[in-house]
Amino acid sequence: MNIHIRQLFSGVLCIALGISVGCSTRTGSGVRYDRGLEKAQTSVPKRGSNDKPPLIVQGHVVPWSRIMPGLSEAAGATVMREIVLSMMLDEELAQQGLVLKAGAVETERGYLVESMRRSFENQGVDAGELIERIRLQRGLGPVRFGRLLESNAKLRLLVQDQIIVKEQTINEAYQIRHGPRYECLLITTQSRQQAVDALKRISDMGNTQVAFSAIAQAMSTDPSAANSGRIGIISPADTSITQAIRSILSTLQAGQISPVIAMDDRFALIFVVRQIPPTGVPMADVEDQIRQSLTHRLERLAMEQLADRLVAQARVTVFDRSLDWSWNSSNQP
């Protein structure tokens, strides 16, 4: 199972650590290299002489001076993004006179668990275990995970008063979740003739789901070709789906193949694996839940936009060459 957590941290980010000679200063997308910063570097406090060594190998002490360049290259850009975003959020909250309430971070943790639970509720996945697995995969230990939750809580506080969920959007979401739905396979082609050829090949093979899947793998230009054309369960009420496809769904029965469908820049065929009737759940029973889910989704979009804006505004100086290499490498296409 491939799990993806969308990162909030983008834009131009880095942080001054004052470890080695030279630096780069960034504001927005501009870059400037400065020299003669010895005074600034000497002002950075050094580790105490009584500190325990970070690592001992075969009885030999490995000092931080040997570890830090490698750590900086391997993960410097990621940590810089997180720290700078956190600092910019503190400034923004102060400017707006806002204070994070006690328990806000734990509330954010609850949102994450609930989001995971809903996303995988039909797959027998424990949300808490899944989060722990992702944390291990992404190196989100106690410090970084805590900072991530805190940043999310601050972002949510800053955007929550801007969020308005329209009744039309709630009705659409209700229809998507509880109205008629269709499990489908999809084939797309660049030309009508290619779609006609695909339809003929499927017909020659018996117009079966197996035939459609085989031709989808062989001919479809849609990413779902890698999964035998499976696009999952879709709803005619879902406006994120092309209107031409939504319009034809209600005319098809399970096991049927659509005629060639003309879309904006390509052509398509749909195979209906099964029809799923409406759930019969009254709107009144789920309206609050749908409204909350939509609110969180809109908050997430606004949080990402705010994070992009804040980090793009950050004025940050990098003294360390390894950190600078990490940041520049992370921005390569």
Brief overview:
The chain has 333 residues and is α+β, with helices and mostly antiparallel strands.
Characteristic key phrases:
333 residues; extended; 2 domains; single chain; alpha+beta; 4-stranded antiparallel beta sheet; Chitinase A, domain 3; 50% helix
Q: Overall pLDDT, averaged?
A: 81
How many beta-strand elements? 9
Radius of gyration: 26 Å
Number of separate domains: 2
Structural class: alpha+beta
Helix content: 40-55%
Spans with pLDDT under 50 lasting ≥5 residues? 1-45
Give the terminus-to-terminus CA distance: 26 Å
What letter string, H or E per element, gives the SSE order?
Answer: EEHEEHHHHHEHHEHEEHEH
Strand order of the largest sheet: 6-5-8-7
Shape: extended
Biggest sheet overview: 4 strands, antiparallel
Which percent band covers the strand fraction? Answer: 5-15%
Number of helices: 11
Question: Could you explain how this protein is built, in words?
Answer:
Helix content is 50%, strand content 14%. The strands form three sheets. It has a four-stranded antiparallel beta sheet, sandwiched between helices. Strands 2-1-9 form a three-stranded antiparallel beta sheet. Strand 3 and strand 4 form a beta hairpin. The protein is extended, with a radius of gyration of 26 Å. With 333 residues, it is of the alpha+beta class.
Write the layout of secondary structure elements.
Elements: E1 23-27, E2 30-34, H1 38-42, E3 55-57, E4 60-62, H2 64-96, H3 104-119, H4 127-138, H5 142-159, H6 167-178, E5 181-189, H7 192-204, H8 209-219, E6 230-234, H9 243-249, E7 261-262, E8 267-276, H10 283-313, E9 315-318, H11 321-330
Antiparallel strand pairs: 1-2, 1-9, 3-4, 5-6, 5-8, 7-8
